[in-house]
């Protein structure tokens, strides 16, 4: 087992990783930018190394600074958390070259899923259902128009280097094709330095369902069921839940097996997530694979009773998994509490937290790095807490979530709490029958 893990991240996930390391008897090294001097991950780690100024490129994204910190402190592994360097193939390779275990995917695995058109082709070959569309990249407008006419509109073009909805355009008729193509190409080129596009049939109002998997170094992969992440605004997830209200035990097993097949096709090692779209008829299609731990992993922990960070560390150290799959024993939901003003377009609201009270009680978990007097720096992600609630039914979870949200006091900044309270009372949300388009028609005023 590892003796000392460096955590190449900040905020709640850095704390989350430190907690598990402590339980496993593994020493921890925090790294921090000068903006995070007063952060809890710095205080709770066994050692801490300042790696640069607030701007991420010169601190949390600086490979030389982080490798130096690992060398100086004698860390034998690095946990990248999510975001930052977690899906950076070059970083994963450099760690390997320095003999430091990267707790995440190998460079090859990251590369094979990082290019979306290649990832899709790989999954299709493995027998995972994919959305009908172009074989690989589109070569010309003419080819795109021809294929779209054959499939029928609407279609969607996506950046192969994409993610988060950038470089993506829905096309509803041939007359819109050329402009959409040009816009997507320009946007993708500017955002990713890669303007490759591929085309798919557009699935109207789908659900976003993702399967949690864990693979070991012996080719075994298991799944830990799904998370429903359909409540999103502009490709930012706000609420996640498990089990999904629309997934039957049969569909869960089918999607779980598809995710396992896909992961095995690339010899996947570690914790990963296979994202699917599910259409109105309950048909599912591979969308992308995330080769990292995700923000919303705690809801899976609550319903399966696994510590996913512990599983990541164990498989990275060469421990074999049982290979059993896990289905939810409970219901769980996560609300992302962001320092944003939901009544004003979710505008960021950094600043000092003057008063803080976190909720508690049965079935309530808060993963957060903030405290009374903490100042949220403007340089990073605006998520300041994850409120995770579990219970014996979806109804119980929603009731408990509303209670916990009402107990949550954060003064000095605006947060997404009022939005979540309103959502917990929304008949459409409560019914469980909603799609990824749900928030497009939500009334964010009067919060
Ligand atoms: C789609 C789609 C409909 N049809 N692909 C959004 C982000 C990127 N990962 C893929 N996305 C979508 N791809 C086809 N063929 C609809 C979306 C989409 C979406 C997906 C999941 C969750 C929220 C979404 C919001 C808008 C569009």
TrEMBL record:
Pfam families to which the protein is assigned, alphabetical: Biotin_carb_C, Biotin_carb_N, CPSase_L_D2
Gene3D superfamilies (UniProt xref): ATP-grasp fold, B domain
Enzyme class: ligase
Catalytic reaction list: N(6)-biotinyl-L-lysyl-[protein] + hydrogencarbonate + ATP = N(6)-carboxybiotinyl-L-lysyl-[protein] + ADP + phosphate + H(+)
SUPFAM superfamilies, per the entry: Glutathione synthetase ATP-binding domain-like, PreATP-grasp domain, Rudiment single hybrid motif
Residue span, ATP-grasp domain: 120-317
Residue span, Biotin carboxylation domain: 1-444
GO molecular function annotation: ATP binding; biotin carboxylase activity; metal ion binding
SMART domains registered for this protein in UniProt: Biotin_carb_C
EC number(s) recorded for this UniProt protein: 6.3.4.14
UniProt pathway: Lipid metabolism; malonyl-CoA biosynthesis; malonyl-CoA from acetyl-CoA: step 1/1
BP-aspect Gene Ontology terms: fatty acid biosynthetic process; malonyl-CoA biosynthetic process
Lipid metabolism as UniProt keyword: yes
UniProt entry keywords in alphabetical sequence: ATP-binding, Biotin, Fatty acid biosynthesis, Fatty acid metabolism, Ligase, Lipid biosynthesis, Lipid metabolism, Magnesium, Metal-binding, Nucleotide-binding
Role according to the record: This protein is a component of the acetyl coenzyme A carboxylase complex; first, biotin carboxylase catalyzes the carboxylation of the carrier protein and then the transcarboxylase transfers the carboxyl group to form malonyl-CoA.
Quaternary assembly: Acetyl-CoA carboxylase is a heterohexamer of biotin carboxyl carrier protein, biotin carboxylase and the two subunits of carboxyl transferase in a 2:2 complex.
Stored PANTHER family: BIOTIN CARBOXYLASE, CHLOROPLASTIC, PYRUVATE CARBOXYLASE SUBUNIT A
Name of the featured protein: Biotin carboxylase
Organism listed in the record: Spirosoma terrae
Source species taxonomy: Bacteria, Pseudomonadati, Bacteroidota, Cytophagia, Cytophagales
Gene: accC
